[in-house]
Amino acid sequence: MLGKLIKHELRHSARYTISIYTAVIVISAVMGLSLLSSATWLGVMSCFALYAAGFMAVIITLVSVIKNFYDTLFGRQGYLTLTLPVKCSNLLISKVIVSFIWIVASFMLMVLTFVMIFFYAKERSSGYFTIVSDAISLSGILEMLPSASTVIKLLLVAAVWAIITIFTYVSFVYFTVTLANTRALQSHPKILGGLIFLGIFSLNNTVGNLLTQYMPFTFNVGSDRVFFAFEQMGKAEEALLSYGVGGTLFSGLFAFGLLWLTGYILEYKVNLK
User: Fold this and answer.
1) Residue 189: which of 15, 17, 73 has the closest Cα?
2) Which residues contact 58 (CB under 8 A, 6 or more apart)?
3) Cα–Cα distance between 95 and 211 in angstroms, integer?
4) How far apart, in whole angstroms, are the C-alpha atoms of residue 57 and residue 20?
5) More confident position, 175 or 124
6) What would the pLDDT profile of 67-101 be if each residue is shown by its tens digit?
7) pTM for the full model?
8) What's phi and psi for 219, nearest 5 deg?
């Protein structure tokens, strides 16, 4: 049943993001075709458009996570969704998984647009891109990069941090929207929802920063090893990347707790309009 819910959720939520992804593909094609012509202005405009589309993909996806969750549970579709013969926990899990997939896809698309613009600038070595090509030396950049094994470690650690960050955002949004649509707060859901989100966000950051500062236990990636250290972030020797363990763990546990509360409210306290 969970697989069917995820499939349905992917198909339904795609309508919010498919337009911006299509725009990125079209702009990329135009930018590629501009290499065959002498119209430098077309490539310049395409680069600016692709740059903007990369950012818009992330913004639209983050907003669509909120809209899709509200529409399917607290809008007109909510009556149908919450009366399906499935557990609220399964509904919530499917939405978390699909939201996570779209957010990751949007960030990957944004990074891809930057890479495409960079290599386009390297290919177009005349006109406006001469300055960019001269200023950015690929061989020079490669010389400054750490070893391949270190880069892999950095990417893996950054990926774990990104997963926790995305999961935290989704849990904050889902809890905020759900709590704002209970009977006690339903009179002004948007205003109260915004205040709830700011309160949760501030609490998470404040406690996380305090734990990182007063419990200086960090996870670090060095040039030749991955190690823990009882030092503040950035203070460990040879650390290329450093994360406060206390703050990161708190964010993850806080997100899980909020999702559990969201499931409880959906099961017993939800109030459909």
Assistant:
1) 73
2) 103, 106, 107, 110
3) 30
4) 6
5) 175
6) 888 888 777 766 666 666 677 777 888 888 888 88
7) 0.74
8) -105, 125
